[in-house]
Amino acid sequence: MTTQTDIAPLAADLRIAVGELIRRLRSENLFPLTQTWVLGRLDREGAASVSDLAQALRVRPQSMAQTIGDLEAEGMVARNPDPNDRRRALVSLTPAGRARIEEDRAVREGWLVKALEELPEADRETVERAVGILSRLAAADV
Known about the structure:
Number of strands: 2
Strand content: 5-15%
Strand order of the largest sheet: 1-2
Order of helices and strands: HHHHEEHH
Shape: globular
Largest sheet: 2 strands, antiparallel
Radius of gyration: 19 Å
Distance between the termini: 20 Å
Number of helices: 6
């Protein structure tokens, strides 16, 4: 039977390995990380308010407002009145913003595809199984 003490070294190794992978993927980003995150979130989840984006990223609303302002100035996002509450604005992707996030994803995924191609088939199959396990682990509510 596995005990919590047996699991602690595994948890530490997993944290380190995931951290290294995240740092490597971030180094492949074409754009500032916060902008990439905002564009990706808007692409995946649709329009959101500045305060909702700030809360999701765990940054101050003022910082998120600056990021949105920068993206808006570059034509990557647009603000429109919230149809349910005219006092709020919703931020949404523009076609240029969608193209930018798709380009960024292609670069990051391109590196990952090449790295995965270098693995033996058995290791790729193990990674495929691990992706599902890691997704369940990330969603664990413990």
